[in-house]
Amino acid sequence: xxxxxxxxxxxxxxxxxxxxxxxxxxxxxxxxxxxxxxxxxxxxxxxxxxxxxxxxxxxxxxxxxxxxxxxxxxxxxxxxxxxxxxxxxxxxxxxxxxxxxxxxxxxxxxxxxxxxxxxxxxxxxxxxxxxxxxxxxxxxxxxxxxxxxxxxxxxxxxxxxxxxxxxxxxxxxxxxxxxxxxxxxxxxxxxxxxxxxxxxxxxxxxxxxxxxxxxxxxxxxxxxxxxxxxxxxxxxxxxxxxxxxxxxxxxxxxxxxxxxxxxxxxxxxxxxxxxxxxxxxxxxxxxxxxxxxxxxxxxxxxxxxxxxxxxxxxxxxxxxxxxxxxxxxxxxxxxxxxxxxxxxxxxxxxxxxxxxxxxxxxxxxxxxxxxxxxxxxxxxxxxxxxxxxxxxxxxxxxxxxxxxxxxxxxxxxxxxxxxxxxxxxxxxxxxxxxxxxxxxxxxxxxxxxxxxxxxxxxxxxxxxxxxxxxxxxxxxxxxxxxxxxxxxxxxxxxxxxxxxxxxxxxxxxxxxxxxxxxxxxxxxxxxxxxxxxxxxxxxxxxxxxxxxxxxxxxxxxxxxxxxxxxxxxxxxxxxxxxxxxxxxxxxxx
Length: 589
Ligand SMILES: *Cc1c(COP(=O)(O)O)cnc(C)c1O
Known about the structure:
By secondary structure, this protein is α/β, with parallel strands linked by helices. It contains 18 helices and eleven strands. The strands form two sheets. A seven-stranded mixed sheet has the order 1-7-6-5-4-2-3, sandwiched between helices. Helix 13 crosses helix 15. The chain is globular. 43% of the residues are buried. Pyridoxal-5'-phosphate binds next to helix 8.
């Protein structure tokens, strides 16, 4: 028998009888942090040492919006040559290699970073999830997660309360993303409608999933992976101005299915679409589900709220808009109130999905699937236990979750985020982002050649179209929407948006200062709504979610966009002169 103490080199004892494997094994003890208090202390020092090298990446406050060096694209070509080395490297060497992989990556905390709903993650979430990784918390059951399970249970309680469900009845499970939440919801819906037997026989009924045209494309992943099939999605048209689900179209569809005795599996309400922040009317959807019940023997259609972006507006439940403690502008306070009212209807839903890695300012992947009635969910979804897992505690979600192993990092991150910010923190972050958005919209209104195209939505996102400097944008855009594909006006101006977006992207990535500044990191959508003629409308897109962005950032952004437009036209990457005569609908300024 070889004892650790005999072979530790630092003991100065080199027992010649010690086999090599034991020697090697002993040195590998250093690879693990949690042997005892001293090794944990070493780990903390190593973590400090690693993290303290990161600032080398961080550009100066006025620097570019990526980490490290500029590059136009990552080069993945030699990755296939990677081989497993015989000898491992030292921790510090591996950390050097790890750090190097972040070279060139976007810097989420930079004020000029505003491409999508991708906030910088907060410290409490990062550190808490690191601890879950360090100590190996696994939410498959209480034995492996112990008190960390409270992070999941308490998150579910806090969030259910926000929604307006009874926290004693509701429940929640952290999962791999908004798409994971949607998959949970779909499986729940299929089982509720088609019966528990469907879990044995498989899905043999072409029930329908009703979701707005603007709903997230995870509707496709989920129906596909769940075996229902993408053909069973029915897209409901959306209101022209608000992009919300058209309730008349929904009712017509439900009445038609009802008369044909085709079951509705689920109606998905999107509580803030990815592009335009459109919110569906949950209460009316609930009434329609009750008005058109599924024919026997099918169960009731499940009302799911895809609230991955919109959920955090619920934190305004406790905000006194009269008093307006945070002194939001009148316009922003109004937007916040409208969002709160729309989100408050989530109480009528059966289930909801929430992303902390979007409007929760937490690290990936951090999403929680919530059910208004957790017992119902568990009764429908429970499987027989496994021979190798014993139920040592009262919390055993592994019996009904999609995952077996479910790392505790997400639960710790979400829970710590709720604690770090509190309602007021969320109010400040969301209201602040809307103040930025509102200021930006004001600037856009002040420039006749640019038009905001999601005026009727109240999220942090601004979508806008930029036209040549002598074109009246608002007028032209109205014409574009009405046009029945008889000119190529829409596609020409779509091309301009795309060229500007491409210019912005290369500017951001080039690391060059142009027009006196580094390129903002913004985004572009190729179809958040359609014209009467069925053409997709492209738009430039910004989401100023950073606490570091300011009115000056918005000023810079606008002048950058105008600069990009002028460069694109001056360099003939886009031209409108040659086919001008074709279109008489545009109005010159
Ligand atoms: C991002 C998004 C999703 C998908 O969520 P992931 O966390 O990326 O899986 C679903 N719905 C909406 C509205 C989204 O914006």
